[in-house]
Amino acid sequence: ARLSARSAARAGAGLVSVAAASAAWPIYAVALTSAMVLPCDGLQAWRALLTNPRYNVMLIGPGAGTGHSVRDEVLSALDTRRMAVLDADALTVFADQPDDLFRAIAGPCVMTPHGGEFARLFEQDLAVDSDDAPSKLEQARAAAQRSGAVVVLKGADTVIAAPDGRAIINSNAPPQLATGGSGDVLAGIIAGLAAQGMDAFDAAAAAVWLHGRAAALFGVGLVADDLPDMLVRALHELQGPTAA
Hints:
two-stranded parallel ribbon; 12% strand; six-stranded mixed beta sheet; alpha/beta
């Protein structure tokens, strides 16, 4: 969650808030000096936070755990019909009943599964070795159509697919991204871009590219903690030279 929060802020979210259990609140408050850290214990407290209209994007999953309460928190967030980014544990908790998740998606939503999470959620094995097996692109498109969400199927050739059939295959991901926590950073970048008004598909596609570019700029020795700061360099590149 700390990686996601820092990345969302670096991507331009403006104001980032982290909802943390009271027992973990001091840890997050010390680590995130530029974010609001809010104590949040239980579903009712979470729902109370959601009544604040300033929270225009919600990212759920990194470090959330896989208890039943996470399912209810995801469903409550989706019920607001505001932009939601679902990653990691927020997807895993629906592996046994994925249609419960898909039926709840009524507003803009981005899901960011890696191959294993995708296989559990959509009951499709990406490693099927058959001439007539659907490609990764085809599977991502079908998953987006079935779920009603933008699907970011992560990997060296990350596929970003929208429910309307649009799709992009990203090709700038260096091998250094295969490090723990890099997915949390990606989810945060998506949230940060969406918070500024980008639609779900554009925010997801731009974030995947920026994620790869930030990793390439750092090079060998990258760990996930390096990515939020390198994101700034990637954004400066896009901005181009500025007048003195």
